[in-house]
Specification:
single chain; mainly alpha; about 75% helix; globular
Length: about 190
């Protein structure tokens, strides 16, 4: 996402921070516009934006250089609002933006992509009959839209997690010395 800005400016710093500013603008406009669609007041839309993008954790990510995660959160918030909108409504052609948003979220950051897919499963549980078939089609379309990246990532994660003896090694389950589970790698094995 930052590469075109890097090419235009020939500076990594300008390219990175330009992409960060644009991600925040996209997020604010998306939340503000889609918030109107689901019936949020202007104050609630601004507060929702600040709740997601004005928190300490996300601001700290800027110091680590994780700008792609901020883009993923902006795509996540817009896709989440679309899922809320279509939860009680019939799925039409405009619902294709759900699949596009979910695919782009997966491509921007895997952990947030897993989170949007979990919420998508909740969306599937809320649908019945013919609408369930359409919603499942959107789910498959979102997976297929990012499959050119997901399939190699899945095989790479399996190769990194499976020990030489053919079973999941204990040392592979833990990614840090503190003993916290690496959720992205586990989700790539367990969810498909």
């Amino acid at each position: 996402f930052a590469y075109p800005f890097y090419v235009m400016s020939n500076s990594v710093l300008i390219g990175a921070y330009t992409s960060l500013i644009i991600a925040y603008i996209i997020a604010f406009l998306g939340i503000y516009g889609l918030g109107n669609l689901i019936g949020l007041s202007p104050l609630k839309r601004v507060l929702f934006f600040l709740f997601i993008f004005g928190n300490n954790v996300l601001i700290k990510m800027m110091t680590f250089g994780r700008f792609h995660e901020i883009l993923a959160w902006s795509l996540f918030s817009m896709t989440f609002m679309l899922l809320i909108y279509y939860k009680d409504k019939k799925i039409d052609k405009k619902a294709m933006f759900i699949a596009l948003g979910a695919s782009l979220t997966i491509l921007a950051h895997q952990s947030i992509g897993v989170l949007i897919m979990v919420i998508f499963v909740g969306f599937l549980l809320a649908k019945k009959g013919e609408e369930l078939g359409k919603a499942f089609g959107l789910f498959l379309l979102s997976i297929l839209g990012s499959s050119w990246w997901l399939i190699p990532a899945f095989f790479e994660a399996r190769k990194n997690l499976i020990a030489k003896s053919g079973f999941l090694g204990v040392e592979a389950w833990w990614s840090f010395s503190l003993g916290t589970i690496n959720f992205t790698k586990l989700a790539l094995i367990l969810l498909p």
